[in-house]
Amino acid sequence: MEKSKVVLGVSGGIAAYKACELLRRFTESGHDVRVVPTASALNFVGAATWSALSGNPVSTEVWDAVHEVPHVRIGQHADLVIVAPATADMLAKAAHGLADDLLTNTLLTARCPVVFAPAMHTEMWEHPATQENVATLRGRGAVVIEPAVGRLTGVDTGKGRLPDPGEIFEVCRRVLARGVSEPDLRGRHVVVSAGGTREPLDPVRFLGNRSSGKQGYALARTAAARGARVTLVSANAALPDPAGVDVVPVGTAVQLREAVLKAAAEADAVVMAAAVADFRPAVYASGKIKKKDGKEPEPVALVRNPDVLAELSAERARPGQVVVGFAAETDDVVANGRAKLARKGCDLLVVNEVGERKTFGSEENEALILGADGSETLVPHGPKEDLADLVWDLVAARLG
After folding, report:
1. Per-residue three-class SS string for 147-162
2. Distance of CA 102 to the CA centre of its chain
3. More confident residue, 156 or 273
4. Cα(336)–Cα(123) distance, rounded to whole angstroms?
5. CB neighbours (10 Å) of residue 210?
6. 201: which of 31, 46, 325, 366 is 20 to 30 A away, CA to CA?
7. Does 69 score more than 50 pLDDT?
8. How far apart (Å, rounded) are the C-alpha atoms in residues 123 and 157?
9. With contact defined as beta carbons under 8 Å apart, do 191 and 212 qualify?
10. In what helix (H) or strand (E) does residue 37 lie, and over which residues does it extend?
11. Which of 357, 362, 261, 268 is nearest to 309 (CA)?
């Protein structure tokens, strides 16, 4: 990212200490960060800490440095405002336009993208008042990241945990990279599959593939940054959960089919980026298959797995649903891609040339996106998030 002016708002929750890590990521990336805590936030992390880490003065009140009109200027000059953690109280104030301190004044004057990372107890997050406030903020164009599920204050566990600061930073990075204040996927529910399925042969062996899940996770992360509610069906991907994304872990192709079809029932778009095994062993050995001296192993009989992409395309769960597939090819990339697009019946097909040192496990990708309308979009070699954003551009255009 180019150097940007970032306002980090911190409200009064126990997760305030985690915002120090988020601040560090912004400053180490070269951004000019102004921390604007609430008065209650200073009960958790003091002003000296915020000032030392950001290199900028810290204030909670509109009465400090009045000649600089901070309650107006800070928001006017910002390229991004991120509030982390955003408590239930802060979400309510922002939704109702209250302005009783420097942070709420800043939110009212900001004309840049605004991101909220909520953190609170499960009951508070699920309360109808909080959900209405979140819907209001999203309706106005703010990105409200879904909280994570995990350990909360004390012994409680549930939804309401602040997402990992590194993943919050990734959402903000994508928001800044796009440079638009209106998230074009707000109000949409999208489903993304990622990773590679594993088909068990015996208790210690499986048939699998080289997919790392990085492209699917990039698709999920960029969709969240563009305001979508995201369900990520993840097959054996050893990656941190993207901030604001509901992750459904699966193992086999059959499990992936069940999870994707369930989530797709109310989705506006489904992107099948996972490498789904075409075949599975016909018989599962309940014990480890032993090597027998002097004898060759028995052949492994295979049976077909369900074709999830074709099923999704043929039986759209709702009118206007957009379905995107991925094709990993090793030769005749365009011809094989066109044939697969016609065979699967999806709206878009992202065609990759793959190999032992291509695409799988890499941070970068290049592809050709084929449309059922005959369109072709070449994506040059670059970060997988750039390809993800282009996929969502094409999906958004088809959603209308």
Report:
1. CEEEECCCCCEEEEEC
2. 30
3. 273
4. 51
5. 14
6. 325
7. no
8. 11
9. no
10. strand 32-37
11. 261
Q: Which residues of 320-339 are buried (b: 16+ CB within 10 A; e: fewer)?
A: ebbbbbbbbbeeebeeebbe
Alpha helices in 127-247 (DSSP H): 128-139, 165-178, 214-225
Q: Whats the size of the chain, residue-wise?
A: 400
Among 105, 133, 209, 365, the active-site one is 209
User: Alpha-carbon distance 326 to 309, whole Å?
Assistant: 9
To 10 degrees, what angle do helices 19-28 and 165-178 make?
Answer: 40
Residue 63 has pLDDT above 70, yes or no: no
Rounded-to-integer distance, Cα 343 and Cα 329, Å: 15
Which pTM value belongs to this model?
0.86
Q: Indicate if 56 belongs to the active site.
A: no
* Phi (first) and psi of residue 175, to 5 degrees: -60, -45
Contact call for residues 72 and 49 (beta carbons, < 8 A): no
For residue range 70-121, list pLDDT tens digits in order: 567 888 899 999 999 999 999 999 999 999 999 999 999 999 999 999 999 9
